[in-house]
Amino acid sequence: MCGIVGYVGGRQALDLAVDALRRMEYRGYDSAGIALVGTDENGESFLKAVKRTGKLANLEDKIAEVGAETLTGSTAIGHTRWATHGRPTDENAHPHVSFDNKVAVVHNGIIENFAPLRAELEAEGITLQSDTDTEVATHLLALAYNDGDTAGDFRASALKVLNRLEGAFTVLFTHADHPDQIIAARRSTPLIVGVGEGEMFLGSDVAAFIEHTKNAVELGQDNVVIITRDDYEILNFDGTAAEGRPFTIDWDLEAAEKGGFDSFMMKEIHEQPAAVRDTLAGHFEDGRVILDESNLSQSDLKSFNQVFVVACGSAYHSGLLAKYAIEHWVRIPVQIEVASEFRYRDPVLDERTLVLAISQSGETADTLEAVRHAKSQGAKVLAVCNTNGSQIPRESDAVLYTHAGPEIGVASTKAFLAQVVANYIVGLALAQAKGTKYPDEISDIWASLEEIPGKVEEVLASQEEVGKLTSALGAVPTMLFLGRGVGFPVALEGALKLKELAYIHAEGFAAGELKHGPIALIEDGLPVVVVVPSPHGVKQLHSKIVSNIQEIRARGAKTIVIAEEGDTAVEPYANWLIRIPATPSIMQPLLATVPLQFLAADIARECGNEDIDKPRNLAKSVTVE
Ligand code: M6R
């Protein structure tokens, strides 16, 4: 939540910061702003800040109004905001500038003790300009620099302030008297250093600077970093030296750009075959499933007698599918819980419990806290994550990376499919270790997984079909999604996509629950999506859902039916029929989800929401609880 960028180097920092913010905008777009520091021709140091509410385009307009030529400086910090404290207004936009106009601060996270700090500043006679928690850090830094034992010492002042902040935060500090450096810190929220030649970068993630360097350094928890043009220095909050983890970024700029599609989301939907293929790669050799065995041994896997899945949003829906697969293949109970609820009750966990923590970003605060709680109870945590080096895998016992590549669209698409695949890999590894499936059965399931990328390619061709159906549907105030068995999580995921992209009411139900209440919602013309199980799977499921379709049609619903090729039984009951290739039932969600992604995007556009990458009120990484 909130994107942060920083630059110290020899180039015009304004342009670099705007470009970097463009790549960070998926993390929040309530406002954007940049502060520049430098030295003018008379040797006088200056600090200039420009910020505006709304998307980055608004900031660019403001820069044009002010005149880009006036915003010089070779050091910059920038921010794109997802509002937590204070409404999205110009005043609440970052950077915040101190009372003496010397310090600028950008921040991601929450300063939990901001209220007493604010009161302290007000008692000193400082008038705060915004409602944010961030602004307190700005004035505290100016006070520390101006007076007392840290006077004139930027580093000591920054450390003094950082040690007073509570909560989870990434902050970047600049000071007009030190135009050649940025001091930054992280606690529980992300910050990566980009190491260039004669220039250094900071970003909430590597997309901020991938265009300029592939050399990056990951900071540890509670680390401070001081960057100058030629160097970076990492410290602990007490000022002692600390070490980062240097790594080479293995994606390129193209992966973070739209590649000819009109939105990241559309690009990412089309990248799903590759996301599945790349996630499977390297996990099956010589007839055996390979997990992250460096940290989770065969005897660990064998010892687990229950699994807990914790995740949020789409990741949670992928976790529901983990439950179906693991219980079926491994015959041990799997419980699943939204991560935000998990630690507030008292789940029964012990050292024989495997906790599967699923997160695309690896930053989701609720999931991270669930991981911490699980570990404190002695459970082993396996993270399924798409972001190398992020906090959730760092704090987990083992990790299985999904290789979906960067997902920029706020609505999860390719990461969801990759999560389902990763969850199935975990299920197969458990079945193998516990001997609940014979090797040839595991090989057969693996072979079906390997067919999925090709089948997803076929489903991508349904885009046009879905487009026609959307135009025929016209304006829809609400929509229901029904599924049975593994189709139920697909129904939930389809409804979530529609809510977040089109802002219309949508709900997913287990079709069997219909008659227990939701059927009262059915009225003439109501569009209902029905995910039909394979007729070759559990027979009763197919015939039962066919009955459900008839029940809702009898009450006026218009049915949009997703069904396997060759399933002729559903034809008479579908107002619109979208075909997906035949596949074993457990694999069907990997195909049936795809038309629902198109449907949500198309309806969103019909509703006039052109920017499907950045739905209102949302952010890609939810780093606050
Ligand atoms: O990064 P994570 O996978 O932990 O994120 C979890 C959810 O916030 C995420 O899946 C969210 O629900 C998506 N916007 C759904 O499209």
TrEMBL record:
Residues 296-436, 469-614 form the SIS domain. Its EC number is 2.6.1.16. GO terms for cellular component: cytosol. It catalyses: D-fructose 6-phosphate + L-glutamine = D-glucosamine 6-phosphate + L-glutamate. Keywords: Aminotransferase, Cytoplasm, Glutamine amidotransferase, Repeat, Transferase. It is an enzyme of class 2 (transferase). Pfam families: GATase_6, SIS. The active site is at C2 (nucleophile), K620 (for fru-6p isomerization activity). One of its GO terms (biological process) is carbohydrate metabolic process. GO terms for molecular function: carbohydrate derivative binding; glutamine-fructose-6-phosphate transaminase (isomerizing) activity. Homodimer. Catalyzes the first step in hexosamine metabolism, converting fructose-6P into glucosamine-6P using glutamine as a nitrogen source. HAMAP family: GlmS. This is Glutamine--fructose-6-phosphate aminotransferase [isomerizing]. It comes from Corynebacterium doosanense CAU 212 = DSM 45436. The lineage of its organism: Bacteria, Bacillati, Actinomycetota, Actinomycetes, Mycobacteriales.
